[in-house]
């Protein structure tokens, strides 16, 4: 019999229960014991649900309070020196993830440490905490989460398959700790493997038959030494343990990266949503006992599975291997998908046709079980389900909701001149310097200011019809005035309107565009306790009308300082949505680019001197394999330029990118041709900055001076050093001073303190470098 399995589940809970509990713990409203009770309740409900759905291999150990890679680091003793004085494991864990700043008391010492670096998890919108390794790193197994969670499930009578992050991926994604010469982190593998073996033996002693070892690094373009590391690791693990090992690769194709490890594992998981062609490639490589896990159900998107197509792929695998050597699974962990469509009452009432096209995590487990049942019992056993699925797929293919002839006509006839600014940056900069008259080291923010409870409550009342449009508009204008006055008081040079009317940088604009719809409970984790609710792109995209003009013009009327119009770029609008998969990404992105172009032109016409079009998703959208990069970068950069190229020279175009490794794609970033680019820098090292000098970057740049994901407030001296470091690589005339990202999630006291310090840094630098 084929086995219905899962690789992971949305640990945040059905309605973000984990987020609420974790944040209650951070604010001191609940104790550590109460937090444990809360998260164990979520775990229990998830395990029981998956068992009731009919899954036979249910994951455990993938549940985390902040980040799985951070869990892995702490349980293997990879604790940077700056956190080792924090003795409470839970406080230490959160300090590594988000930083901590506590004043001294009569009984405790002062604690002031920043968070570790955070990066995007492959090409997803999830962020992970980057492990830091020292050349003399020692590893020690301490309170492993996977053992604890396996035992908890077992006590409930639920047998699970423990999930752990693989040793090679863990080391390969890490970096050298600050203060040490760079070294190959994989050189630590001989020290790490015995600790992994110890963990696997503990799991086996607890009763686990299988363990899932996630090695998504297998989809990278790997040099020979990394491929050799995979072989070394799994040859050693296979020799020292007898627990059955399933190595899971996902998000792309493995190609020949598996050749060394394959003889030493019991099962291999493939992402056949991203790389269906690899089924034919890998089948002949398996020995006569190995199991193949088929990732047939998309764990990254929200569209229903084509059950007939998936069943055919499964039948092909079974024909080659037999039913006892095939697992049916999602492409990757379902943690990247919302919980269940059962909560989507509004879509059900307003657009039942769209609802019939959607499948979230709970529904995806049903799809997995349906495919497995079709193989085990025959297609007739699930013929009604398959028929309903085929009808929904045909409905989506032929629906008038998905296609707009006018949008497609415009996108097919874009003039060549619309894809770039008419003059080069040097010419534009002269016009912008004259118009804006900014000081040396101009200060600004990335866009959003804190959204307190008052703003959230007002938005909820407005959405429920409890607050009239006129009253809500007056409330938002009052908030904008407060935010403009705040910027005057702090002393910033280029203002923003603060975005009090926006719930999310993508969802807000989605409401103002045709082709988008919105879930009530479609939450997924972005980082830590931070969740996002991506909109759904189901049809052709066009602008309903002006989107930001009224708010931006009103904010500009309150000050003589230049105001930035704030927009989300076409790649990010697409990437941070659940994007349709029935047309190409190029077509979707071009449609969005045209809609944004109309808004950019309208902002300029309304007198707004600076327009920021954020593209934090360009880097994360980069295909995993380098062979696919050029095509992606060509159309993604072109769509950004399409959205921004319709303005005059004196209008200054800004863009923002966060947590991006620019080294490999720097030429493409430069080709965006933005006048000012702001980037995350507070937790990165100088490797990020050196590329700007190496490539002789000649446009304006703002490297973040403080981490907005942490409540910690850095000192003036600490922020100043960030700019001083940057001055080694860029001329002072091109440098801006700004935070890492938007300030929406921060509180006002820490925001004011951090921005006050930041403005003071600019003043000091002007005096020193004038």
UniProtKB/TrEMBL annotation:
Residues 4-317 form the Cobalamin-independent methionine synthase MetE N-terminal domain. The active site is at residue 709. Transmembrane segments: none annotated. 5-methyltetrahydropteroyltri-L-glutamate binds at residues 19, 125, 530-531, 576. Zn(2+) 2 binds at residue 658. It comes from the Eukaryota. Binds 2 Zn(2+) ions per subunit. HAMAP family: Meth_synth. This is 5-methyltetrahydropteroyltriglutamate--homocysteine S-methyltransferase.
